[in-house]
Design a protein that fits this description.
Layout (H helix, E strand, L loop, with lengths): L14 H15 L6 H9 L10 H78 L10 E3 L16 E4 L5 E3 L4 E8 L5 E7 L4 E10 L6 E2 L4 E5 L9 E7 L7 E2 L1 H7 L5
Antiparallel strand pairs: 1-2, 2-9, 3-8, 4-5, 4-7, 5-6, 6-8, 6-9, 9-10
Length: 266
């Protein structure tokens, strides 16, 4: 009696068909190109060389190799990303430090410039103050004969200046800044110096034993211009000092008020 099986339902798939299906599945896994290079040598083996291998076993092996390669590739990419992130962070830190160093350098430079400018201004102000200051013509002295004192010793009948007590050879100073307009013999004044002050007034220094400046010379407050003496119409060594509104005799003003008006205590 003949036994007839239903076609297709219980029939075992032939080896060539099954192998072909497995190969197709592996090719699908290798669509990214990574598996293809691994799969090709494995697929080259014939059924005779590996009679007991199935397509599923080959797929498992290839899958493991694929996973290893993908994992290695992912690790490499992650390492590259971490290196890039570390480099970017280091560059950012370096840039921040460089910017901070630049800011500090600029601040220090600005501070030094401001300090220098302040020092220059202070020196300029001090020099201006010094040049505008007035001093006594004889240091540590006193007025021995007052202004407008009456006596027959003077041709005008009264004293046109004040006398400062001073031994012969005592240093005589310009009372302020100005220009020498006379330096030489002045008749009854003996050796004398006349200075046109920067404010337009004039000062005179008489009876000098020695002259230390010449006409046209610029002088500053406290500068030595000569030495006191007893030349001209005198009874003894001293300094005759006059303040005038003009260069000529007869334009005299009170020397004490003049000096005090410029801050000199006499």
């Amino acid at each position: 009696m003949a036994f007839i099986r239903a076609t297709g339902k219980h029939r075992r798939t032939s080896r060539p068909v099954k192998t072909g299906r497995n190969i197709a599945g592996i090719a699908t896994l290798a669509a990214g190109g990574v598996v293809a290079s691994v799969a090709s040598p494995a697929l080259a083996a014939t059924d005779e060389a590996r009679p007991h291998d199935t397509g599923l076993q080959q797929a498992v092996v290839l899958g493991d190799e694929l996973a290893s390669r993908v994992e290695a590739q992912a690790d490499a990419q992650q390492a590259d990303a971490e290196i890039a992130a570390a480099r970017a962070k280091a560059e950012a830190v370096a840039k921040k430090q460089a910017d901070e160093a630049k800011r500090r350098a600029e601040a220090a430079k600005k501070k030094a410039k401001a300090a220098h400018e302040a020092k220059v201004r202070a020196a300029r102000d001090a020099e201006r103050k010094r040049l505008n200051a007035f001093v006594a013509p004889i240091s540590d002295s006193y007025v021995s004969t007052s202004y407008k004192a009456s006596s027959g010793l003077w041709s005008s009948g009264s004293h046109t200046g004040i006398d400062f007590h001073a031994a012969s050879g005592t240093s005589v100073h310009a009372v302020g800044s100005g220009t020498v307009v006379e330096a030489g013999w002045g008749g009854s004044y003996g050796n004398n110096i006349v200075i046109k002050m920067n404010d337009g007034t004039y000062t005179q220094y008489g009876h000098l034993s020695s002259l230390g400046v010449s006409v046209g010379q610029q002088v500053t407050p406290g500068q030595q211009i000569g030495l006191s003496g007893a030349t001209g119409n005198v009874t003894g060594p001293h300094l005759h000092f006059e303040a005038r509104t003009g260069a000529d005799y007869g334009s005299d003003i009170d020397p004490v008020s003049y000096l005090r008006g410029h801050g000199v205590n006499v």
